[in-house]
Write a structure and sequence with these properties.
Elements (H helix, E strand, L loop, with lengths): L1 E5 L2 E5 L7 H9 L9 H20 L5 H15 L18 H18 L12 H5 L5 H37 L4 E6 L2 E7 H26 L1 E2 L14 H15 L4 E2 L4 H5 L2 H27 L10 E2 L17 H25 L9 H25 L5 E2 L1 H9 L9 H19 L3 H7 L5 H7 L17
Parallel strand pairs: 5-6
Antiparallel strand pairs: 1-2, 3-4, 7-8
Length: 466
């Protein structure tokens, strides 16, 4: 064991630990969620610290051997070698100070080792004086959250593109399968099964594009602004140089915020990202629910499509197979919507020069991105790509419905067409039978009008289309 000290007194720390007194206190203070800060946030913090050390070296503030040791420690963190040393809970007070200090202490102690010293000997490399030079939690943590969010958002955008492609492939595959459309769960005019998949693909296309574009707002960072965005204790050469280093290190087109107090105070950009993720979750929930409905049965429900059978569905009912992938997608979507609400509350609760609740925003935003990345992969591969159509069931339900009555309104008017529909129900007859028996129109016109395939595109059935 080693003893470390701070303004509050002494704390014992195991010799194997790279973190120090501030992290140890935070561990004890915040046994809240049981989940440490996200690995992507850890890597983003290391990138910020590396950029800062490199910049401070360039402007002559940091001695070369110390800077090189700090940079080497950051490289190890970015590779994942020291993940186990980032132990503070993601639900922490202090606007991210505990996470920043966790990074400072791990980097400092590993740099001390690299230079031949022993952990805790901060006369060699100091967590604040060296690792945190020219920085504050208040510019480091928000910048790291933005970097982590961008890194996590990019694969999510790709997952949406893959889902869009899979839906478009089904749109083409099912383009000739006629079925009854439904509005308010009642029979409506005919559609093709492909058209239903095409509409879903359009919704996912919008989600993909919106998420792709929102990265532009996340790229605006306040690094160099230090405590409140004024840049106090950060030389101008550092302020302008660190963003260039960070851009090069991350490969992300980051830009220094025009008004650095803005990203320190305001978290609306995270609300924007979260809101777009919520909108996407709404579409995923809608599609998943539609798929469950269309595949219901298989004998006593709609049964128009068959979802891939991936596991047995019941411990008591033999042969039952449930739409578990679609159900899982629904649940992930519900959780994402809930996360968005938490982010909204946290963002509006910021006060004056800082938002103390950014750790909650980060925790929920990263959960949303993880959920989407994992869920969309499973949903696309194990559900959408394996969907099959029951053409006979689709045609049977269509022929037994009254949806074709709509084609009559241009010839006999709405009221008389309504009476035809009523007679069909009362006498248990088809539309064709009622039209023929009541001699409402001749067989040739009936043949021209009661063709479901012509009802799935613009125009008046039975008349020249132009």
């Amino acid at each position: 064991m080693r003893i470390e000290r701070d303004m509050l007194g002494e704390v014992e720390i195991d010799d194997s630990c790279y973190y120090g007194v501030n992290t140890q206190r935070a561990r004890r203070n915040f046994p809240i969620s049981g989940t440490p800060i996200h690995p992507q946030l850890v890597r983003a913090l290391a990138a910020v610290k590396k950029a800062a050390a490199s910049t401070n070296l360039d402007i002559g503030r940091l001695e070369p051997e110390i800077a090189r040791a700090i940079i080497a420690a950051c490289d190890e963190i970015e590779s994942g070698e020291l993940d186990g040393q980032f132990v503070v809970d993601c639900m922490q007070g202090g606007a991210g100070t505990s996470a920043n200090m966790n990074a400072n202490e791990v980097i400092a102690n590993r740099a001390i080792e690299i230079l031949g010293g022993k952990k805790g000997d901060y006369s060699i490399v100091h967590p604040i004086d060296h690792v945190n030079m020219s920085q504050s939690t208040n510019d480091v943590f928000p910048t790291a959250v933005r970097i982590a969010a961008i890194r996590m958002l990019r694969p999510v955008t790709e997952r949406f593109a893959e889902l869009q492609t899979a839906l478009q492939e089904k749109e083409e595959q099912f383009s000739a399968i006629l079925k009854v459309g439904r509005t308010e769960l009642q029979d409506a005019v005919p559609v093709t099964l492909g058209q239903e998949f095409g509409a879903w693909a359009q919704a996912i296309s919008r989600d993909r594009w919106r998420l792709y574009k929102v990265e532009e707002r996340l790229r605006q960072v306040g690094i160099g602004g230090t405590a409140v965005g004024t840049g106090l204790n950060a030389p101008k050469a550092y302020v302008f140089g660190v963003i260039e280093k960070l851009r090069a290190l991350t490969g992300i087109g980051l830009a220094r915020a025009e008004y650095m107090m803005d990203p320190t105070q305001n978290c609306d950009v995270f609300v924007e990202v979260s809101g777009l993720l919520k909108a996407a979750a709404v579409n995923i929930a809608k599609i998943s629910s539609d798929l469950r409905l269309l595949s219901s049965g298989p004998r006593a429900g709609f049964g128009e499509i068959r979802l891939p059978a991936v596991q047995s569905g019941s411990s008591i009912m033999p042969g039952k197979v449930n739409p578990v992938i679609a159900e899982a997608a629904n649940q992930a979507a519900f959780q994402i919507m809930a996360d968005d609400f938490a982010i909204t509350l946290a963002a509006q609760a910021g006060q004056l020069e800082l938002n103390a609740f950014l750790p909650l925003i980060a925790k929920n935003l990263f959960e949303m991105l993880d959920l989407f990345n994992n869920t969309l992969t499973v949903f696309t591969e194990k559900c959408i790509k394996g969907i099959e159509a029951d053409r006979e069931k689709c045609e049977s339900l269509l022929m037994n419905s009254l949806s074709t009555v709509t084609a009559l309104t241009g010839y006999i008017g709405y009221d008389r067409a309504s009476q035809v529909a009523k007679d069909c129900v009362c006498y248990n007859k088809t539309v064709r039978q009622v039209l023929t028996e009541q001699k409402i129109m001749d067989d040739e016109l009936i043949d021209r009008l009661l063709r479901p395939e012509i009802m799935t595109s613009p125009g008046i059935p039975g008349r020249e289309r132009g």
